[in-house]
Design goal:
about 220 residues, alpha/beta
Amino acid sequence: MAGSSVTLCTDKLFKVLVIGDLGVGKSSIILRYVNKRFDEGYKSSIGVDFALKTIEWDRNTLVRLQLWDIAGQERFKKMSRVYYKGAFGALVTFDVTKSSTLEAASEWKQDLDSKVCLDSGRPIPAILLANKCDVEGRDADVVSSLDDFCKENGFMGWFETSAKENINIDEAGAFLVKQMMICDAGLYIEKDNKDEIKVSQPPGESQSQTLCCWRPQL
């Protein structure tokens, strides 16, 4: 028909890992992010659970996230290579009231980097979630160390989160999607073989975000 127009829609599918020790709140974060609710009686995952979230990134782009909730028990770490295959991003979670789970987050990140990477050979984008920030007993010293921790362990950034109170869950998700869209578009520009990158503004940047995190200088 004369005067008609066709709008092409881009559909992106990203596999996202949600990893961390047992009891840090991974399943609750996914439940809040996908279903917008919190369940006090939610049981720990056994093996791997899956959830799908669809995001209208901009008027022409749909982003589908396949969220893999990896159980934190030690026996499932041995199968991580199978679970990680094809992943394009990760949310590494720890309990901000238990410093031992932060140490474990470093081990999870090392395991992740050793078993999956982008086609370029770079690590997949990973965000650190300091979960349960609403709980009494939050360790302020741990929080103050997270900038350095992220730099040392190669995280793109960190957020204090609470699945129960819905603090920074959507913001962390949006930040990870932004990083994955940048990687997917191949917008990394290397300079003089130095470990330095520049990134261009991805779709959806016009949305305002309140971030409680460290982000690298780009």
